[in-house]
Amino acid sequence: MPSATNQRPTHKILMSATPRPTPAVRPVSFLSGRSLTLDDGKPNPAVNGTLCPAAMQTFEKEGVPPQELEAFVEALRRLLPMQMSGTPAERFAAATDAALDLVAKVLDKEPNPALERWALEFVPFIDSPAGVKAALAHFQNTLSLYSIVMNLKHGD
What we know:
Blueprint: H1 11-15, H2 27-31, H3 45-61, H4 66-79, H5 88-107, H6 113-120, H7 129-154
Helix pairs in contact: 3-7, 4-5, 4-7
């Protein structure tokens, strides 16, 4: 929930905004036929193998600076354990909102809406703590790939 000093819109407002062109693969379409985790609870490698490159393309197209993605992923990593109530999906959604609020404060600008849209597409498919870890792993892996590719394309 935005505070009086931080008027960042909630994810519901952003999700209802005018649709943008989307890549061929989005989390919601890909995950509707697959699980985030394997039977042993480990992240499903097919998810990252397909969605990390798709996220990277989306973030580049939407103009997400690598530093912003890095700040978001680190904030999400640190804030997830602080979410103590609700279902795993609710905890991930709350941590996403809190991470975006923190990014807005730290970078003194609104986070790119592409981050929020991508993250919240995972929520319906998170049904366990292992699913939360798998979604976070997706963002960590995407950050690694995105940082390397953007550095190769644009240098320091």
